[in-house]
Amino acid sequence: MKYILYVILLVIFQSCASQAKPVLVDSEMETNVKENLAYYLYYPEDYLEKSDKKFPILLFLHGGGESGDSLITVKRNGPPKLIVQGKKFPFLILAPQNPDAKKWWNTRAVKQLLDSIVEGNRIDKNRIYLTGLSRGGGAAWEMAVQYPDTFAAMAVVCGMTPLPYASWINKKMPIWVFHGEKDKSIPIEESETMVAKLKEMGYEVLFTKYPKVGHSAWIKAYETEALYDWFMKQELK
Question: Which residue, 13, 16, 82, 179, has most beta carbons within 10 Å?
């Protein structure tokens, strides 16, 4: 008798289960993602002397090879390397370090850091510049897409490009792209396709190609004195 009752209940349960509808539950969760960003901050020689003047600032994002927990590696390339060699710049330079060697830049965290530095110093908010190389170049493109009202000009060196979102970039922001034609890590087609798309939509883009250069296009790019003169001419439009 017990066995027959068990079989009947099992049949009823299976029948009900087969007729049950999927349930979509509404819910939410507040997330809290923290990022510890070490950084270098360079001040121009006359920053303290000209206490009533507001200065431009350049945000520099390094490549994958400088990621990790040793801040000194950020000095290997780009403007930080030139500063170590004695070069003087007419603007502040913020050079944060991506703390994870195998992860992309957390651009939200970088923007929070930039905002904090801008608010804590005498910065001309109409002259905030952006540059990055390799993985940092990809992050620079991303920041230009996500924060189109922040930067007055951008220079990207051999970075991966967010082609589908090209139209999100501030159309009035001048852009200068650098890439080595022999780059095997991030093929030059990344930059070529992006530049062509931007020009097609009416953007102001300069494109410098290095015929016999591989992924290290940043060496020539950041030694281009005209790049910094170009930055200094730009203001947020």
Answer: 179
For tokens 């121009």, what's the residue?
A: 44
- Give the C-alpha separation, 204 to 230, whole Å: 13
Task: Provide the CATH number for the domain formed by 35-232 in this structure.
Answer: 3.40.50.1820
Q: What is the DSSP letter of 81?
A: H
Dist. CA 180–CA 187, nearest whole Å: 8
Distance, in Å, from the CA atom of 136 to the CA atom of 140, rounded to the nearest integer, reads: 6
Q: What is the pTM of this model?
A: 0.89
pLDDT score of 14 more than 80: no
Measuring CA to CA, how many Å separate 179 from each of 60, 120, 197, 223? 17, 35, 16, 14
| CA separation for the pair 162, 224 (Å, rounded) | 25
